[in-house]
Design goal:
Strand content: 5-15%
Shape: rod-shaped
CATH class of the largest domain: Mainly Alpha
CATH architecture of the largest domain: Orthogonal Bundle
Number of domains: 4
Helix content: 55-70%
Length: 636
């Protein structure tokens, strides 16, 4: 039947049921997914006969199967599986042979060999390897394969405690889904090699001692293409009833629904297996064969409300009646499972992060240590961010991440750290307007306070504006040094000598120079206390010296005696500045004291002493500025 044709109507099953009754022993057929219906085989065709004859001839040449039989592992309808040893390899294997006394027809022999030939052609980690195929002297098949020590998956599905204990699985459902993914791996490989399994179900999956997963029982598998060897039954010929009631797809029923199996047939069986994982039973239920067939044809599985919605949708999409309407292939089915697992892991991460979030909120309510707050914040952020990485659209993860950032932002705002609060708000999707305004206002206040602190720091930094201060000092100090030298030159000329006019003029000139230098310093923006102190001291000293000169002229004091007052006034001014500014001006003070002593000993040394004191003061201040600059750089 072409794939584009609509399926037959659900009603009118009598003909199909009658055909089934003629094909199988319905009375002995279990309807719980434990019994498989084998297709009846016509007589072998020419290619199959050639394959069987070649195998028989090879067995005669070898002298029988190369194994030493041991105990029986299990028995089926026509076959038995025994433990055996391969002497040449020294390894234990499993050997499938016909039961003792069973009379096998050529078709029955081929039925057993088909599974071995197909499985042997599929070399995959999730498919049991077949080592060799032979026949015994009576012409019965001998299939040597890897011995698998494990448990049928169907048993583990009903025992979550065993799954947790044996495989250390915290989430039993997740473990089963990952087992299903390994089955998908085996099927995807088989489909790539042109083979359809047709009997995927939990009881045909073996789980080894160490968690290995094997898709077993390829007895009714078919090939999509003929390789000409006769070893593989073809899908085009597989139109009879075959498979396990409870799981099989509608096209496997034969009769009116028959169509060649395709990879979408196995996709259907994967959906039925996923249904079993979620619900604990096969999807097609019924107490009679007619009821099971009816459920198969309808193919509308009903899942409980507690089933994950995405997996329930996947089951329905995989088990649609028409193959063309199903999930496109095994890879797409596996991707849907993997996406669910990522989301399942994300949900678990969110639950763990929410528990940490509650601890964080309790910590914030109890006058916490800032380090404890950020330890908990880091743990919360990690959990929520990992969940979002696995599931970008996870609403709870995004809401939780925003909530912890907002909580700690309020904590920082209450502590007065507006910058930290603003940084945390940048990670919030949509911060509350009120909180954003409060943080912005606090940031503005913090910036203003920072500006004030920086201005105060500049004012307190003696190295601030050092270059400008050096130029400021250069002019008055040079004038203070050169002025007395000029005075000495004038005094040495005939008729020379100190006069009130010269004293007043020199002090007025120095005051004007110092005042101009102070105005220039202010225009340069130098606002440190050190600079202000220097400027005030300079202007104050020369103002005092000008007043002394004016008073000396007013009261007729000898000009030389008036000049003698310049030294003690300067000494007092330098001493007060050193005391108030806490500057290390002791070298200049020592120079001034030495000058006072020298002038007291010989008054003629007055002008050289004044020049010496001004020079010493300038050098002292210059070196002091260099020291402040070095200390300022070290603090930065």
């Amino acid at each position: 039947m072409p794939d584009s044709d609509p399926p037959p109507p659900v009603s009118g099953l009598d003909e199909t049921i009658a055909a089934l009754d003629a094909t199988v022993d319905a009375g002995g057929l279990r309807l719980d997914g434990a019994s498989r219906v084998e297709p009846s085989l016509a007589s072998a065709d020419t290619a199959e006969r050639r394959a069987l004859e070649a195998l028989t001839e090879l067995a005669k040449q070898r002298g029988g199967p190369p194994v030493e039989m041991g105990e029986t592992l299990g028995e089926g309808g026509m076959g038995v599986v025994r433990l055996a040893v391969q002497p040449e390899m020294g390894r234990t294997v499993a050997v499938k042979t016909a039961r003792e006394g069973a009379a096998l027809s050529r078709s029955a022999t081929l039925s057993m060999l088909h599974e071995a030939w197909i499985t042997g052609a599929l070399e995959h980690p999730n498919i049991v390897p077949v080592y060799t195929v032979s026949v015994d002297p009576e012409g019965r098949p001998v299939i040597v394969m890897k011995r698998v020590e494990g448990t049928p998956w169907s048993e583990l599905l009903g025992d979550p405690d065993a799954v947790r204990a044996r495989f250390e699985a915290e989430d039993a459902v997740e473990w089963h889904l990952r087992t299903l993914l390994r089955v998908c791996d085996a099927l995807e490989y088989a489909h790539a090699r042109g083979v359809v399994h047709r009997d995927v179900k939990p009881s045909n999956v073996m789980v080894g001692r160490f968690g290995e997963v094997y898709l077993m029982d390829w007895g009714i598998a078919v090939a999509l293409e003929d390789d000409g060897t006769g070893r593989f039954p073809l899908a085009a010929d597989a139109l009879q009833l075959a498979g396990t009631p409870g799981y099989m797809a509608p096209e496997m029923l034969g009769g009116a629904w028959a169509r060649p199996p395709t990879p979408q047939t196995d996709v259907y069986l994967l959906g039925a297996t996923l249904y079993h994982v979620l619900v604990g039973r096969p999807p097609h239920q019924g107490t009679t064969l007619s009821a099971v067939v009816q459920a198969t044809v309808v193919s509308e599985p009903s899942l409980p409300e507690g089933a994950p919605p995405d997996l329930a949708d996947l089951v329905r999409a995989a088990m649609r009646r028409r193959p063309a309407d199903r999930v496109p292939d095994v890879a797409a089915f596996a991707r849907a499972i993997e996406q669910h697992l990522r989301r399942r892991g994300a949900a678990r991460l969110v639950d763990e992060a929410e528990a940490r979030r509650r601890r964080l909120e309790a910590c914030l309510a109890d006058a916490p240590d800032r380090g404890d707050v950020y330890d908990l914040l880091g743990a919360c952020r990690f959990g929520f961010q990992q969940a979002l990485a696995a599931w970008p659209g996870h609403a709870r993860a995004r809401e939780g991440l925003d909530a912890v950032h907002l909580a700690v932002a309020r904590f920082e705002l209450d502590r007065g750290d507006a910058a930290a609060a603003a940084a945390l708000l940048q990670s919030v999707t949509q911060p509350p307007a009120e909180l954003a305004r409060a943080v912005e206002h606090a940031l503005a206040e913090a910036r203003a306070q920072q500006d004030r602190l920086q201005a105060l720091e500049r004012a307190l930094d003696p190295a601030s504006g050092r270059s400008a201060i050096n130029w400021y000092l250069l002019v008055p100090i040079l004038a203070g040094v050169l002025g007395p030298i000029v005075e000495m030159y004038l005094d040495a000329r005939p008729g020379g000598g100190a006069t009130h006019a010269r004293n007043i003029g020199r002090m007025a000139t120095l005051l004007v120079i110092t005042t101009g230098a102070t105005w220039w310093l202010h225009r340069r923006g130098v606002q440190s206390f050190h600079a202000r102190g220097l400027a005030a001291a300079g202007v104050g000293v020369f103002t005092a010296l000008l007043l002394i000169s004016l008073l000396g002229a007013r009261f007729g004091i000898d000009p030389t005696r008036t000049q003698a007052l310049y030294l003690p006034v300067g000494f007092v001014a330098v001493g007060l500045f050193a005391f108030l500014a806490r500057a290390a001006l002791w070298p200049a003070l020592l120079a001034w004291m030495a000058a006072l002593v020298a002038v007291a000993y010989d008054s003629r040394l007055l002008l050289p002493a004044v020049a010496w004191c001004n020079l010493a003061l300038g050098v002292n201040i210059w070196f002091l500025g260099r020291r402040y600059a070095v200390e300022s750089r070290a603090r930065r």
